[in-house]
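Q: What would this chain look like folded?
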Amino acid sequence: MADTDRERWDERYAEGLHNEGEPPGWLDEFADELPKDGRALDVAAGTGRAALWLARAGLHVTAVDVSPVGLEHLADAARLEGLRVETVAMDLERAPLPPGRWDVISCFAYLQRDLFPAMRELLAPGGLLVSEISTVRNLERHERPPVRFLLEENELLTLVAP
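A: My prediction, written as C-alpha cells:
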C-alpha cells in the first residue's frame, strides 16, 4: 500500500469520517465456537470493531493495520474497557503477517488475496478464520467498492484451500 493510502486512512480516522461502529451482528451467532482464551490476530483492523469483539470474548488480540491513527482509536477503546489488545502499525503489502500460531484470525472488508494462504498457515490446529468481504454481487446494489476489492462467488474458499 502506498504511503498516500496510509495518509488517506489516517486522515479519515482523525476526522471521524470512517467510524466502523459495531462488528457484524452475525458474529454473535458464532461466539460459542470461539476458544475461551488464546491468541487472535485481526488483519486490517482499522479502529478495531472485530478486535474489540474478540477481546471481549476473552482472547488476547494483536491488531494490525496501516493506519497508526486508527490503531490509536482502538488502543484507547481497549484501555477504557480493560481489554488485552496489542496494536501493530504495518503495511500488509510490504511486510508479512506477525508470526505465531493464532487461535483466531479475523479479516473484515480488506481483500489482499495473497494474505489468505498465509493466514491459513498461521492458524493453530483447530483455529478459526473469520472473514467478511463483499463479492462482485455487491455491484448489483452499489457502485463501490471497485471490483478489485471484491471476491468472486466462493473465491474465499479457494484462497484458503490447502
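The beta strands are 39-43, 60-65, 85-89, 102-108, 123-132.
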